[in-house]
Amino acid sequence: MKTEEKEVKDVYILAIESSCDETAAAVVKNGREVLSNVISSQIALHTLYGGVVPEIASRKHIEKINQVIEAALSEAGMTLDEMTAIGVTYGPGLVGALLVGVSAAKAIAYAKKLPLIGVHHIEGHVSANFIENKELEPPFLCLIVSGGHTHLVIMKDYGEFEIIGRTRDDAAGEAFDKVARAIGLGYPGGPKIDKAAREGNPHAMEFPRAKIEGCPYDFSFSGLKSAVLNYLNHEKMMGVEVNRNDLAASFQNAVVEALVSRTILAAREYGIHDVVIAGGVASNSALRAAMAAACEKEDFRFYHPSPILCTDNAAMIGAAAYYEYRKGVQSGWDLNAVPNLKLGER
């Protein structure tokens, strides 16, 4: 590992992301300017199975990886010879899917004699905020909400995180997917519940909001999920038809309230006035609206990426890789996929 600070003018990162079911490549200039951001989604394919099938995802990445890289370079109007470094997600995620991106990145970096920079997928999600919020700088408080993660972290500096809260069981996105499946909305659950909730009453059913004693910033969603399933079973036994829109709105309201209340509490108690959200669930309209209102009430500054930058994409990986490059951090040729990589690990 190199750690000396680099002083450079323009840095062009070719970034690759393949952690789950999106094959993506992007060209990012100086960490905050996206010259291209190409995403090949597999949602339609996995919808047939009600969720992501790892082997199918890996095979599709192999088919698409070269195409999206070529498209990203073409859209940026640049060539590999003009790149400064190659950034790639190496964890967490599906091991087979990650290996496709890592292998492609290593091959390009080796052939072109370019620095290889492995990027933590979740750090990429946080870094998506730098792309559209040019003034945003650490330190800030970030709520990370996705299918596999629900974390409350303080980003102290670029690449430096302190985790102050996390889920004890289901991630918020995982709960969305499970409840959506239970009420017959299908996959992907998050966007479908968000859409149904707009037509429902968020106070039609009052579901529990779990609190962890002694850990005020931690989350728990398994009890909420169980409460929804129990409600559905009870109504079915009683022969009562459930209003799906009301149920979706009530469930979503419980999740959003838990996420927002803990985030605001942490920001208040840590004295942090910049609040950021990141991850797939950060595109949820109710969460964005509730967090914006709560931050305005507290006189906090609220930042969030556009929905396209909340989903898995390579632009966010390019943003994160840039700050690693500036610190002189570089991966070796032994870089490998780490499916269970923890936030802050290297």
UniProtKB/TrEMBL annotation:
Binds 1 Fe(2+) ion per subunit. SUPFAM superfamilies: Actin-like ATPase domain. It is an enzyme of class 2 (transferase). CDD domains: ASKHA_NBD_TsaD_bac. Its cofactor is Fe(2+). GO terms for cellular component: cytoplasm. Fe cation binds at residues 121, 125, 312. Its EC number is 2.3.1.234. The gene is tsaD. It catalyses: L-threonylcarbamoyladenylate + adenosine(37) in tRNA = N(6)-L-threonylcarbamoyladenosine(37) in tRNA + AMP + H(+). Substrate binds at residues 144-148, 177, 190, 194, 284. Keywords: Acyltransferase, Cytoplasm, Iron, Metal-binding, Transferase, tRNA processing. PANTHER family: TRNA N6-ADENOSINE THREONYLCARBAMOYLTRANSFERASE, TRNA N6-ADENOSINE THREONYLCARBAMOYLTRANSFERASE, MITOCHONDRIAL. It comes from Fusibacillus kribbianus. Its main location: cytoplasm. One of its GO terms (molecular function) is iron ion binding. Belongs to the KAE1 / TsaD family. One of its GO terms (biological process) is tRNA threonylcarbamoyladenosine modification. NCBIfam families: gcp_kae1, T6A_TsaD_YgjD. HAMAP family: TsaD (MF_01445). Residues 33-318 form the Gcp-like domain. The keyword tRNA processing applies. Required for the formation of a threonylcarbamoyl group on adenosine at position 37 (t(6)A37) in tRNAs that read codons beginning with adenine. Is involved in the transfer of the threonylcarbamoyl moiety of threonylcarbamoyl-AMP (TC-AMP) to the N6 group of A37, together with TsaE and TsaB. TsaD likely plays a direct catalytic role in this reaction. This is tRNA N6-adenosine threonylcarbamoyltransferase.
